[in-house]
Amino acid sequence: MPPSVTPVKEESAAHWAGQMAAVAANRDVEAFMRVFAYFGPRVKRYLCGLRVSEPAADDLVQETMLRVWRHAAQFDPTRATLSTWLFRIARNLYIDSVRRQPHWIDTQDALERLDATGSELGQGEWLADGEVLERAIAALPAGQARMLRMAYFEAKSHTEIAHELDVPLGSVKSVLRRTILKLQVVLGDHK
After folding, report:
1. What's the confidence (pLDDT) of residue 123?
2. To 5 degrees, how large is the angle CA 66–CA 158–CA 61?
């Protein structure tokens, strides 16, 4: 059972940097518990705001705080505040969890597969030229381009897209499938 933690009234960046210094230098459990007690609920609210389920948000908070404990010495208060560092860790863990989901298609892999379907540009060369990709996406109907950007550049799940755009989940999946096919044609014409 964790030690009882006295609530902290001081919430300055210097205070939290000091707490992390104690964790890094001495593996100070009480300092860590203060950090956890203060930032844990805030990280969970952030994750729930990304439409992460409550159980998954709890898991990501635990994973975030475990990473904070293990890598406390890497925190540098001259580069970022503790809250910035913590939320960046949580965001990266969230993105990693989305990428592990079965619906996730790696953008680089998908775009390289598109490149292999007929473009004379070397594999990935047109990707390096962001203008070609942007023109290809701009050539799509606005709704398709928006869904593509949401799915691949904002890392949103099909469910999140459906909810945000207020359309059926099946429609999101079929529109994205048609959009990829259309993008293949547009990129195939770019010879």
Report:
1. 40
2. 15
Q: Output the pTM of the full model.
A: 0.52
Residue 26 to residue 99: CA distance in whole angstroms: 35
Which backbone phi and psi does 11 adopt, to 5 degrees? Answer: -125, 30
| DSSP calls for 55-84 | HHHHHHHHHHHHHHHHTGGG--TTT--HHH
Check which CATH number belongs to the domain holding 144 and give it: 1.10.10.10
Residue 6 included in any domain: no
CB neighbours of 162 closer than 8 A, spacing ≥ 6?
168, 169, 171, 172
Amino acid identity at 184: Q
Query: Count of residues for the chain?
Result: 191
Listed residue (176, 114, 170) closest to 144, CA to CA: 176
pLDDT tens-digit profile of 118-137?
A: 444 444 444 444 566 677 78
Q: How many domains does the chain have?
A: 2
pLDDT digits (tens, 9 = 90+) for 144-157: 888 888 887 777 88
Q: Which domain holds residue 145?
A: 107-189
Nearby residues of 132 by Cβ (< 8 Å), 6 or more positions away: 121, 126, 187, 190
Residue 124 has a pLDDT of 46
